[in-house]
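[09:14] KT: can someone run the structure on this one? pasting the chain below
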Amino acid sequence: MFIKINGITIFYKKSGHGKPLIMLHGNGETHEIFNRSISLLNKYFTVYAIDFRDHGNSSKVSELHYDDHAADIYEFINKFNIKKPVYYGFSDGGIVGLILASQYTDLFSRLIVSGPNINPKGLRAYAKNFMKLKYALTKSQKVEMMLKEPDIPLFNLSKIDIPTNITGGSIDVISRKHLKLIQSSIRNSVLKIFKYHTHSSYIVNSEIIGKYIIEVCNK
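[09:31] RB: done, structure tokens below
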């Protein structure tokens, strides 16, 4: 399904029934990475799985910024009058979740983010070097955004007061220290590290994150 937002077209898939759940993917991906988890989640939630601008079936744009992604999702929620959804975001989706939850403190009922960073310093050196090489070869605006953004002040994170779950893999491209910094800056938050998993292995084409979302939302 498609909706016009902020002058562009956003693609989304709606399924299931129950409490609303917004799901956002990572850089260069689409909502389809969640398909296995959605098959579990739509028994408990009305799931809105969205393609970011310039991803999947959503409109292509000339430049990308996390704040634009956040503005799109905020407008999406308002257009459909979605009340107090649970928000789940992976990687870029997690960054956008942190931006939105700190700007609009009553927008979500719960925030769940996997592998987010609040600035590029959160990336491990090998990951950043790989991105620099990739950008030199491709000039991809998606990669450029990850190298230059986001820039979320710790003070902004302190504004988040809804229940928040932060996750990472034990072999994540985001450093454990950075994830702990995010967690320590948000009241009412917990950090879960998935042992033996990478940045994406417990999320992309996996039921693990779906089971985790169900678990934390049913506590």
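[09:33] KT: thanks! The first helix runs from residue 35 to 41.
[09:34] RB: yep, looked fine to me
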